[in-house]
């Protein structure tokens, strides 16, 4: 495959953490194109691997020294391609599909993120040597993988209020955040003493060369790490301490920014953790509004114009001095607020819909809106007040729920991937693999 990858094209082809191969068209296959892996009844071609490696290489075009030797990079990328191929097969066997309309929306989103029209996106892809059909195929595969993960974990991950209470009781939620990176030196199952000692020494040697300044941590992760995030420089991202496994919290709290931990023995091998950065979390507030509302529904028997005229008449009576709450009880068709005189309570701006929210933002306290239309009919609202509400505690509970759910989802899906890989027939034909 002689196609040249630009940084723009590489970015488009690396839309997710799972590397999705873009299969070359049949007419581009040459007689020297060989098989680098057999995956169940499917194969991965040398051209596919070269293309995926070229994608990674393009992303590091300005930092080529951070990449490992070609044979190591090929092995890492092939492992990803194999796992991707197995997941795609499982997704299709499970009946997961991506409709053409959904794919079109995803393409539109990609174009928007790159500040392009779809025609400009097509032109740029062609300029960089990738057909539009190839790009669509790659993006469809990515959506399939996302849905496979969502479907698998959705029914298996439940978070109870008791679990949230338990987490909040033992951990500080919403406190300082840390950005972490890691390097893993893997050990095989049932490793003997010599293998353990070798892995531990390798981890210590990596730590030494990084601290000596011979190579930075991200480059070392790309070259030496056996973790799935190796090609991302070992980046784990921002985490609160409550989102970190308890065994590592004390260790990380002792690190200074930029420092690297001693090798830590885990189930899969030895791990080095770097504290990349820290930041403080502040008090979280939300603007809430208090209002009264009247709804006149538009129905097949009450045309929209009739509903508008009734709303206009009611507003005129309110402006003339009649009580808003009394008219709401008598005329409003909003069953949630009618009996309370149209009282909508305190709520975030768009809790009653964007149409109501937009009107609230334009009103002053005590002011009554002109009649306005939503998808259900015509409204009049009176803004009673606004306030800044401290939602730190509410967000802490939501954050705790997300932390527990994310942890369970990751564990479940990692278990699924290990099982998927273990049950598959995979034969690597890379030299030295």
TrEMBL record:
Any one biological process term the GO annotation gives: Gram-negative-bacterium-type cell outer membrane assembly
Q: What is known of its domains?
A: The PPIase activity resides only in the second parvulin domain. The N-terminal region and the C-terminal tail are necessary and sufficient for the chaperone activity of SurA. The PPIase activity is dispensable for SurA to function as a chaperone. The N-terminal region and the C-terminal tail are also required for porin recognition.
State a single Gene Ontology molecular function.
unfolded protein binding
SUPFAM superfamilies per the UniProt record, alphabetical: FKBP-like, Triger factor/SurA peptide-binding domain-like
| Source organism of the structure | Arenimonas donghaensis DSM 18148 = HO3-R19
Recorded superkingdom: Bacteria
Start and end residues of each PpiC domain:
175-277, 286-385
PROSITE patterns linked to this entry = PPIC_PPIASE_1, PPIC_PPIASE_2
The protein here is known as Chaperone SurA
């Amino acid at each position: 495959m002689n196609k040249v990858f630009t940084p723009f094209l590489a970015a488009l082809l690396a839309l997710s953490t799972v590397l999705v191969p873009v299969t070359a068209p049949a007419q581009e296959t040459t007689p020297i194109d060989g098989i680098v892996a057999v995956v169940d009844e499917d194969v991965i071609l040398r051209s596919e691997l070269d293309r995926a490696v070229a994608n990674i290489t393009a992303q590091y075009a300005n930092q080529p020294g951070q990449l490992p030797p070609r044979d190591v990079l090929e092995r890492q990328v092939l492992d990803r391609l194999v796992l991707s191929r197995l997941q795609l097969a499982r997704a299709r066997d499970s009946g997961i599909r991506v409709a053409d309309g959904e794919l079109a929306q995803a393409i539109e989103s990609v174009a928007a993120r790159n500040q392009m029209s779809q025609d400009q996106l097509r032109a740029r892809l062609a300029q960089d040597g990738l057909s539009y059909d190839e790009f669509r195929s790659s993006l469809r595969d990515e959506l399939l993988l996302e849905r496979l993960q969502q479907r698998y974990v959705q029914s298996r991950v439940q978070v109870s209020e008791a679990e949230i209470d338990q987490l909040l009781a033992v951990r500080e939620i919403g406190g300082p955040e840390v950005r972490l990176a890691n390097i893993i030196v893997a050990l095989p199952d049932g490793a003997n003493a010599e293998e353990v000692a070798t892995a531990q020494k390798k981890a210590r040697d990596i730590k030494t060369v990084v601290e000596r300044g011979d190579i930075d941590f991200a480059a070392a992760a790309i070259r030496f790490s056996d973790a799935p995030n190796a090609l991302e420089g070992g980046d784990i991202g921002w985490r609160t301490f409550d989102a970190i496994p308890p065994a590592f919290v004390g260790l990380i709290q002792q690190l200074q920014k930029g420092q690297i931990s001693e090798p830590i023995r885990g189930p899969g091998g030895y791990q080095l953790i770097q504290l990349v950065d820290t930041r403080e979390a502040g008090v979280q507030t939300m603007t809430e509004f208090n209002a009264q509302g009247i709804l006149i529904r538009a129905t097949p028997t009450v045309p929209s114009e009739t509903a508008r005229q009734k709303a206009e008449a009611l507003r005129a009576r309110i402006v003339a001095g009649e009580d808003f709450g009394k008219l709401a009880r008598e005329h409003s068709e909003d069953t949630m607020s009618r009996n309370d005189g149209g009282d909508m309570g305190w709520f975030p701006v768009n809790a009653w819909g964007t149409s109501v929210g937009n009107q609230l933002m334009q009103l002053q306290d005590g002011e009554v809106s002109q009649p306005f239309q939503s998808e259900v009919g015509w409204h009049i609202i009176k803004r009673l007040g606004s306030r800044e509400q401290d939602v730190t505690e509410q967000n802490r509970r939501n954050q705790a729920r997300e932390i527990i759910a994310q942890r369970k989802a990751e564990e479940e899906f990692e278990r699924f991937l290990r099982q998927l890989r273990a049950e598959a027939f995979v034969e690597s034909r890379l030299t030295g693999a």
